[in-house]
Amino acid sequence: MRDSTYMIDLNVVTFDAFCKLNALDETFIGTPDYMGVAYFWGHGVKHYLREASQAQRRRIHKKWLEQGLDLYDDSDDHFRVIGEVMPRFRQEIQNSLKVNGFEKHRVPEWNRVKFGNKPPVTAEVAYEQI
């Protein structure tokens, strides 16, 4: 199985089979045997990686290991790899890295509350509003 787009169809396996596959794959995290089923990432990148296919997860996992990145961290390098592997987020990640570094990636743009960016309220602004 060397196809870069392979996928285990988890929609047709029983819940018990999924749990066993997931448990097995958890033992493969950090190794070349990782199958793309179990979660291996930290909080900062979960919004991107939980939408990834199994093949994309495998590629990201492999690239992070090759670059010596901590699987549970979320640095600029982590986001660059996600952008390379997941075209859907490539432009958003590139724009954010240019502007703010990885801090903007804590919550993806499409998942942010749409209340607008209000300036911080200072004592002068609060007094003027009274």
Keyphrases for this structure?
130 residues, mainly alpha
Give the arrangement of secondary structure elements.
Blueprint: H1 15-28, H2 46-49, H3 54-66, H4 76-85, H5 87-99, H6 123-129
Helix pairs in contact: 3-4, 4-5
How does this model look, in words?
α3 packs across α4. The chain contains 6 helices and no strands. The protein has helices spanning 15-28, 46-49, 54-66, 76-85, 87-99, 123-129. The model is unreliable at 109-127 (pLDDT under 50). The radius of gyration is 19 Å and the shape is globular. The longest helix is centred in the first third of the chain and has 14 residues, at 15-28. By secondary structure, it is an all-alpha fold. The protein has a domain at 41-129.
Short description:
This protein is mostly helical. It is built from 6 helices and no strands.
SSE string, helices as H and strands as E:
HHHHHH
- Sheet having the most strands: none
Structural class: mainly alpha
Chain oligomer state: single chain
What shape does the CA trace take? globular
Helix percentage range: 40-55%
Provide mean pLDDT, rounded: 78
Number of separate strands = 0
Cα end-to-end separation: 69 Å
Query: In what range is the share of β-strand residues?
Result: under 5%
Count of DSSP-assigned helices: 6
Rg calculated over all Cα atoms? 19 Å
> Unreliable segments (pLDDT under 50, ≥5 consecutive)?
109-127
